[in-house]
Design goal:
about 400 residues, alpha+beta, Jelly Rolls, ligand-binding face of the semaphorins, domain 2, six-stranded antiparallel β-sheet, 8 helices
């Protein structure tokens, strides 16, 4: 089909789609009750048209926030400020890898034991000695008859009613804080490897989980949409961390909306509640989009707490280096294309000869001509630049 025909079909389809959208919009709009029917226009006289209702008399309903979802917040790295959002100053490179501040952990008192549930002195002494020999918090909780006491930092005996009397008065049965503190050096080392040589590009972007209720059904809830513009002449990376008191999993989804040629731009997990977007160097201006989702399948409390932080890093890169990467990527693509076309055209030649047909060499030449490959390139010569497309080649 010609280009003119394609445009005609596109215009026709667009008109049909517009009509379909209009029908759906009318059918899905609010219905008037039988007590307040809309007034009909007056009957037209012969040879005259009835007046059209004024557009201001029936305004279209505005889309609700539930239908459109959270708005996209754009953060300008050049000015270091968010559009419409107050942000603090840019952190130092070391502080930029730290998790967001957490609320002070309050150790809950141990549950009261029912009357008559205390163990015998002999059993308490025997189990206490076995639990005291366990030093690791996770191993203590997995022992079954032991639990960890945050207040004393020791493994103490327990049963189904809680810790034994006199062994732990507060902070019983949670290794989360100790695990985070123990793994923090490893997490920072992995984040530093992903952002080595870079500096923070503006202040962090914090998202509070305060007050998020547990989503019911569906695929979850989209909490926030963040857009960060990126420019040619810089390489970028992202560090995403949750605070220690974050009791909901906000799953980040990152999309790089700018072309780049090197391996990178991937979201990788570097620890519990921490992930990074690997280094990428855009060839053209674009954006990085970060979507935060709250999964409905997580065992969430009724009301959630904590903060998720997104920190953008960047470093300058010369235009000559970007051009060299683009040229290397173009040469690789050309070599892969020549290898594919030459192999396909060789199959055409062999199939022709096996079928006993005439003019097999001409068929092979025609195949290479259609693939814009020369016989010299198929014989091992260094592939040349890809021929420019004519205006009509779409």
């Amino acid at each position: 089909m010609s280009a003119v025909g394609v445009r005609r079909w596109s215009g026709a389809l667009a008109g049909l789609c517009a009509g379909a959208v209009a029908v759906v919009a009318c059918g899905s709009g609010p219905r008037a009750s039988s007590d307040a029917l809309p007034s009909l226009p007056p009957p037209r006289a012969s040879g005259a048209l009835a007046p059209l209702p004024s557009p201001s008399s029936s305004p279209a309903p505005a889309p609700s926030a539930a239908a459109t979802g959270p708005r996209v917040e754009t953060f300008d790295l050049a000015g270091g400020e968010a559009i419409g959002v107050d942000r603090p100053a840019a952190p130092s490179p070391t502080d930029a890898l730290a998790p967001p501040p957490s609320a002070k952990v309050t150790l809950a008192p141990a549950p009261s034991r029912p009357p008559g549930a205390d163990p015998s002195p002999a059993d308490a002494s025997r189990v206490a000695a076995a639990c005291a020999a366990i030093k690791d918090c996770g191993a203590c909780e997995n022992a079954g008859y032991c639990g960890f006491c945050l207040q004393s930092g020791r493994c103490v005996p327990k049963d189904r009613h809680g810790p034994y009397p006199g062994t732990c008065s507060a902070g019983f049965g949670s290794c989360g804080t100790l695990y985070d503190e123990r793994e923090e050096p490893k997490v920072r080392e992995r984040l530093a490897a992903s952002t080595r040589g870079m500096s923070p590009a503006g202040p962090p972007i914090d998202t509070s989980a305060e007050g998020l209720g547990k989503p019911v059904g569906g695929l979850g809830r989209e909490v926030r949409r963040i857009r960060v513009p990126v420019a040619r002449g810089f390489c970028y990376a992202l560090a995403i961390r949750g605070s220690y008191d974050l009791d909901v999993q906000l799953n980040p989804q990152v999309t790089v909306g700018a072309p780049y040629h090197e391996d990178g731009g991937d979201l990788v997990t570097v620890g519990r509640g921490a992930s990074a977007v690997t280094r990428f160097c855009p060839q053209e201006p674009g954006s990085v989009f970060v979507l935060l989702w709250q999964d409905h399948r997580d065992p969430l409390p009724a009301i959630t707490h904590g903060v998720l932080r997104v920190q953008v890093f960047r470093e300058p890169i010369s235009t000559a280096e970007l051009d060299a990467r683009a040229a290397a990527a173009s040469r690789k693509d050309r070599r892969d294309w020549v290898r594919y076309v030459c192999g396909h055209c060789m199959k055409v030649l062999l199939a022709c000869k096996l079928a006993g047909e005439a003019g097999c060499s001409r068929q092979q030449d025609w195949c290479m001509q259609q693939g814009k490959v020369t016989p010299a390139e198929c014989e091992g010569a260094e592939p040349g630049a890809r021929p420019a497309k004519p205006p009509w080649d779409i």
